[in-house]
User: Fold Prostaglandin reductase 1 from Poecilia latipinna.
Amino acid sequence: MVQAKSWVMVKHFDGFPKDSDFQLKVEELPEPKDGEVLLEAVFLSVDPYMRWVFWNKLPEYCKTAETLSSKNPAFPVGSHVVSHCGWRSHSVSDGADLIPIMADWPSDVSLSLALGTIGMPGLTALYGIEEVLGLQKNETLLVNAAAGAVGNVVGQIAKIKGCKVVGSAGSDAKVAYLRELGFDEAFNYKTVPSLEEALKKAAPEGYDCLFENVGGYFSTVALPQMKTFGRIAVCGSISTYNDGTPQTGPYPHFTMIVKQLKMEGFTQNRWQHKNPESLKRMMAWLKEGKLKCREHVTKGFENMPAAFMGLLRGDNIGKAVVAV
Ligand SMILES: NC(=O)c1ccc[n+]([C@@H]2O[C@H](COP(=O)([O-])OP(=O)(O)OC[C@H]3O[C@@H](n4cnc5c(N)ncnc54)[C@H](OP(=O)(O)O)[C@@H]3O)[C@@H](O)[C@H]2O)c1
Assistant:
């Protein structure tokens, strides 16, 4: 028997989440039966999508976990997996929802990156660029929430592809990080006197591509800065996730007609059949020094709600993870 801790939502969020919306539970887990494995979390992920996943069901999330005991030969004791089984310190699985960590994961690369650059957020950046935008060399790309888990990888991949990259982020420290990563232009959207002027100044020629993570007001101001036939990959809309009442216009249609823009929403799992090859490609970029990683690590399973709320507030530079 093992004592398992789990976080559950006891009250639906009303606007921004609060400590009192979460409750920590402790339960005894039975030994795994034939075909099952007992997992212990090593790193847990907090992601913006959990804001709306929490709404309907128990939190679903990614964690890298180590197999503690196993009656499933596919997952021997000591092996590492990515699992989606709730905010839990320990869990029992029949293996169906487990993804083994890449077989030749280098020993000098933290397993936490399987939740970040070499995991779901990195894949989101790659598929948004390659499958949705079809980004071409010498094009100009704009990405917002650029210092976050997805955004920083978007900018770095666009640089690998020979593009001009403009990033916006919510603090001067984040802007400095974007410059360190090789972004051509970066600005703090919270302190620029005019978002419109900042976008114009960063790319007077206009934008071929927008990798949209923020939505809302940012999107309204950015669309008119697109070039004719510009492409927009709608990855996220974090500026609207905590709204009790949906934001209203201005609506984008007229700008889209005049500029003949193409806008496509996507979720990264559309291309999951490509994940093994894509993760290898990104690991190679990491080892070659073309892809840099930064993480915002919160220590302790007890601090998961705080880490989650910090992410929604913008505390993180790079991927927000919890180390158990
Ligand atoms: N479509 C998909 O498959 C997929 C997959 C993963 C993520 N996503 C989406 O991609 C976006 C980025 O996710 P992530 O995991 O990389 O998170 P992240 O960027 O690491 O963290 C969220 C960031 O959003 C910014 N933010 C928070 N509130 C904001 C607001 N009101 N206005 C503008 N920016 C705000 C904050 O940065 P600042 O300090 O810069 O404001 C914060 O650090 C999210 O919208 C997420 O839902 C989509």
Notes: Residues 196 and 221 are 6 Å apart (CA to CA).
